[in-house]
Amino acid sequence: MARIEKFALHIPSLEEIAGVLQNGLTENYADVQVSVVDCPDLTQKPFCFPVKGICGKTRIADVGGVPYLLPLVQKDKVYDLNVVAKEIQLPGAFFLGAGAVSSRTVGGNAELIPIVQAQNENNPAINGSYMVKINPEDSGYLLEKYSTKHHGCDFGLLANLYASEGLPGKVIEVKANRRTGEQNFISCIRKALEKHYGDKPVGMGGTFVIQKGKAKIHVMPSEFSACPLNTDEDVNNWLKFFEMKAPLICQPVLVSRDPGFDLRLEHTHCFSHHGDGGHYHTDTTPETVEYLGYFAPAEYLFRIDKPQETHMVGRD
Ligand SMILES: [Zn+2]
Q1: Long-range contacts at 137-144 (CB < 8 A, ≥ 24 apart)
Q2: How far does the centroid of ligand 1 lie from the alpha carbon of residue 96, in Å?
Q3: CATH of the domain at 280
């Protein structure tokens, strides 16, 4: 089995995707407005990214996987975003997404919110990532800028990444307010794409802001579980769940359907400017929640270091 597999995703026009999402989200939100716009300048608040946009040579990378975390951790699974950028044929790529830190580097387990412009021939990497860890003393959580504590661009175990040249350009703007259904924002988008495009997988990434309300967020403990986590119930008892406050800036990666690469189909991590952050499950305030997102379709999917032995536990 190749360590790196490449797949050409289906790439509909932005206008066509906007129509599909307008229909799909209307089933789950009271107010929905999807349109094609110029990407806002993402160097500005609340994003403060190192690049202006999410356009140009778009890719999705699914690296490693939950089977390296569960049932027992494999701490030797360490990756580097500068290397991943080359592996996806985009040196200097700008990455957004959801992953785990390298426990070797950080000294414990933690959620990673990758926001990285990888190094290129002329410039060093810019690491704007955040990490969130559990404080073992009080079981609270701590959000930190990764680069204030650590050097380099490595991560561990797994990551779902959206990569681009970080350029301005046309994107799909999604506004959805007041949730009327059960699905979270990204599941609803993914399922709308799956329903419309069927066995032609569409991948998307970008960023969205939960502007009002609260959300259910988990943070992995600093210590890996010493006993095997064999079921979703085991995993949920190990994870720490919190209700966190808007505004939360979320980085989603999604693929509408798995074309056979043992993918995690949706994964979203978030940060904030008030100390909240982690792995997004859903909002907890359906009557007041307001989402505003910017998405672009990916041209290619790369599957890197797919686990040989797999399972479906812990993919929520
Ligand atoms: Zn996660």
Answers
A1: 139/240, 141/219, 141/240, 141/242, 141/277, 141/278, 142/275, 143/271, 143/272, 143/275, 143/276, 143/277
A2: 13
A3: 3.30.1330.80
